């Protein structure tokens, strides 16, 4: 997860639709949740299935305050799948799982409101 903004912060600078269209956000199903004791801030290592087009990817997510491992397995999440991988300690994070900070700054996962196919792209 990246820097969060305050609810009263103005919108970011305007961009062209073509720039937004370059970001590939997909729905994926969490297959496995592993501890990540080496992380500076508490985090889970996630293994997420994005379907045949993208495949299975790994991510580090600082979501331990609201989500236990049992809460996550089988859950559909949204993630950016076309950022370059980032090395986070010993973990190579291949996708950026998306969420919003709540009033206390804890990350609430972004997810489709209804069932969608695994690997569906945000339209």
Describe the structure.
Strand 1 (25-35) and strand 2 (44-49) form a beta hairpin. The model has no long low-confidence stretch (mean pLDDT 94). This protein has 123 residues and is mostly beta strands. The strands form 3 sheets. It has a 5-stranded antiparallel β-sheet with strand order 3-2-1-4-7. A two-stranded antiparallel sheet has the order 5-6. Helices cover 11% and strands 34% of the residues.
What is the ordering of alpha helices and beta strands? HEEHEHEEEEEE
Helix content: 10-25%
Q: What is the level-2 CATH architecture name?
A: Beta Barrel
User: β content, as a range?
Assistant: 25-35%
CATH superfamily: Nucleic acid-binding proteins
List the strand order in the largest sheet: 3-2-1-4-7
Outline: globular
The average pLDDT value, as a whole number, equals 94
Can you tell me the residue ranges where pLDDT is under 50 for at least 5 consecutive residues?
none
Number of strands: 9
Query: What's the main sheet like?
Result: 5 strands, antiparallel
First and last CA, distance: 22 Å
The CATH class label is Mainly Beta
How many domains comprise the coordinates? Answer: 1
Structural category: mainly beta
Number of helices: 3
| Radius of gyration from CA coordinates | 14 Å
CATH topology assignment: OB fold (Dihydrolipoamide Acetyltransferase, E2P)
């Amino acid at each position: 997860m990246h820097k969060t903004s305050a609810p009263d912060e103005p919108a970011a600078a305007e961009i062209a639709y073509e720039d937004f269209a370059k970001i590939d956000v997909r729905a994926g199903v969490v297959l496995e949740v592993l501890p990540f004791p080496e992380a500076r801030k508490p985090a889970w290592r996630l293994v997420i299935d994005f379907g045949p087009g993208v495949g299975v990817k790994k991510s580090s997510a600082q979501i331990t305050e609201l989500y236990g491992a049992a809460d996550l397995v089988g859950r559909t999440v949204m993630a950016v799948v076309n950022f370059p991988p980032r090395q986070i300690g010993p973990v190579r994070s291949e996708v950026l799982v998306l969420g919003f900070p709540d009033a206390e700054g804890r990350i609430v996962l972004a997810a489709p409101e209804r069932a969608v196919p695994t690997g569906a792209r945000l339209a």
